[in-house]
Amino acid sequence: MAAKYTDVSCKFTSMHFKNVRINETPFGYTSMHFKNVHINETPFGYTSMHFKNVQINERSINMLKYVDCTIPLYDFMPVGNVWAWDVPFHTEPITTHENNSYELWMITMHSEAGTRLMIKAMQDPNAPTVDRIPLEQLVSRDAVVVDVPCGFDGSVSKEQIITGFQNANYRDGDVVILRTGWGDLKRWEELGDDYARHTPCISKEAAEELCRIMKEHHSDLAGSDVAYWGRGDKYQGPLWADRPAWQRNPFPSIEAKRFLAQYTPEKAIEDWESPNVMTTNNINFIGAMVNLGEIKRQRVKITVLPMKLRGARGATCNVFVEQDIE
After folding, report:
1. What domain range includes position 91?
2. DSSP SS3 for 65
3. What is the pTM of this model?
């Protein structure tokens, strides 16, 4: 195999390969490792490069080392825009480049818009709030990806959790990443509010099984690419979220306040069974992760950086995953 001419910084390179072996990775990528490289300068100032004993080993050179698992925040994005307690994300210019030489925004948003960290303090006023969580629990944690495929209006089952863990290289203390596939391909832009209203969710039975397995392995944090772990199917969905946008005047409207006034704790628990299971078991969890399809390794490192909102019982966060590309 030979590459005749390659343009490198306005020079020509002649490359000769001998004894080349190519191993394809499970994801269809390859990488090249060169040994015994000899570079000879020609009389014309060009470079002739001769490679001997070239070995191409399994390595994903096109695989991202860092995967951003955070959904972008933009005006009227779906996650934080459909429930009675939501305040749609919205920006308004304070200064502009044209008038002031720089631009500043006023931002209005729900405290848990988009990708967010939810914690025991959601239901326990004595639990540590988001600003008091030690960084050791959030930064560069060992994590395992557990596949539980699920789509439009679906619900992850207990059986899927069991099967997913049977196929996972799960170790004590791992953060668990449940991958349904919902957060891929910028589906939030395609579906708009339906991305939030018709997200797959985690069933109560699945959450109970997840907590059982995680507690046996001393794990305290899980995440998923479902927009919401619960889905408000009994009350908030049919009575509020399923209305057209122009018929659900968001908080702090009088309509939203009146709806929430009759939305008792019992109704909330029925609507959001799996989040209640997670917090009751003292397991923190992340919702609305995205781009999990870009993760090509089962074992990775995860970092979760919530907004440091003093006293908040959950917060919008940035999440990224580091995977080994060697």
Report:
1. 66-322
2. coil
3. 0.81
